[in-house]
Every structure is written in structure tokens, then in C-alpha cells.
Design brief:
Distance between the termini: 37 Å
Largest sheet: none
Radius of gyration: 22 Å
Strand content: under 5%
Oligomer: single chain
């Protein structure tokens, strides 16, 4: 029979692992797009830049940044991440979380506005929006939302779990024992 703390510990860092998986799911296609494989590309891959600085930044650099994002997410839940300053990790994670979540939600808001006829796609983008591969954009931007929300949840959890641990190790005013229950008096 497992105890409650042991059972709770198994699921402690799930948000960080989901964020890391989303980051790697974002990184992998950027690397294969950089090698010239157009699978899951959200648009016409033949018209995308190849062999230019734009392609190097769009494929290889963004793939590398996503791998660093996976390492950041794992540093929030892995024991080796405790060697790094928690507040810095949490701040960077929260900023990235807000940015990625808003980026993903903005795409869905724009898709809604396009479908409702409230906005019209610019002529330069109309052909790209009509391409059958453009549907992959739904997957990639949903991945941004998942990655952002889970990274923020992992940062929040690690930041406040650290405070609970610190508070338990150093009780205020030298008090020991179980915490007082509201409405009771201590004798």
C-alpha cells in the first residue's frame, strides 16, 4: 500500500514534463524543415525560404530555442534544476508562458474573426491561408497554448512548493508541531 505523499510525489511535476514534450514537439519539425523535409509545414513548403539566413533563423535557431525551452521546463521539475536560482527560472518561465499562451490564443482569435467575416485576409496572405497545409497552423498554435500554460503551471508550482518546504523547515517564531487551526486556542 502506498502512502499519500508517495502517491502525490509521482505526479508532482507533470506540468513541466508536458511543457518539455510540447517544446520538443515544436523543435523536431523545425529541424526536419531545415533539412528540406516539408512534412507538417503550415503552408506551401516549396515557397518557403531555403538556404538563406531567414531559413536558418526560422528552422534551426527556433528549433534550438525550443530545445532550450524543454530544458527550462525540465529544470523546474528535475532535481538538477534545484542548483539554479528558482526565482530566475520562475520569472523566465512565467514571461515565456505569457508570451506563448497569448501568441497561441491570438492565432485562434484571428481564425475566428476570419471565419466570422469580421476581418479579411490581406491579398498577400489569402493564398497561403487557403493552402491545404495551412490547417497545420491549428496544431502548431494549439501547441503554443499547451506549452505556455503548462510552463506557467510548472513555474508556479515549483515557486510555491519551494515556499511551503522552506516554511515547514523554518516555522515562524520558533513554533514547532502542527499548525494551529483557525478558531482554536493554543495552550
Amino acid at each position: 500500500m502506498t502512502t499519500a505523499p508517495a502517491r502525490r510525489g509521482r505526479h508532482e511535476g507533470w506540468a513541466g514534463y508536458v511543457a518539455a514534450a510540447a517544446a520538443l514537439a515544436y523543435a523536431a519539425p523545425h529541424f526536419w524543415w531545415g533539412t528540406g523535409i516539408g512534412a507538417t509545414f503550415p503552408g506551401d513548403f516549396a515557397e518557403a525560404p531555403h538556404g538563406t539566413w531567414e531559413a536558418a533563423i526560422g528552422y534551426w535557431l527556433m528549433g534550438g530555442v525550443a530545445v532550450l525551452g524543454a530544458v527550462l521546463a525540465l529544470s523546474l521539475v528535475q532535481p538538477w534544476g534545484r542548483r539554479l536560482p528558482l526565482r530566475v527560472l520562475a520569472a523566465v518561465s512565467m514571461i515565456a508562458s505569457v508570451g506563448m499562451t497569448l501568441w497561441g490564443f491570438t492565432y485562434f482569435a484571428m481564425q475566428y474573426l476570419l471565419a466570422a467575416g469580421r476581418v479579411v485576409s490581406a491579398p498577400a496572405f489569402a493564398a497561403k491561408d487557403a493552402h491545404p497545409q495551412a490547417a497545420w497552423g491549428l496544431f502548431w498554435y494549439a501547441l503554443f497554448v499547451v506549452w505556455g500554460v503548462m510552463l506557467g503551471a510548472a513555474a508556479w508550482k515549483s515557486l510555491f512548493a519551494d515556499r511551503r518546504t522552506e516554511r515547514a523547515a523554518n516555522p515562524p517564531h520558533g513554533r514547532t508541531g502542527p499548525p494551529a487551526v483557525a478558531g482554536t486556542t493554543c495552550r
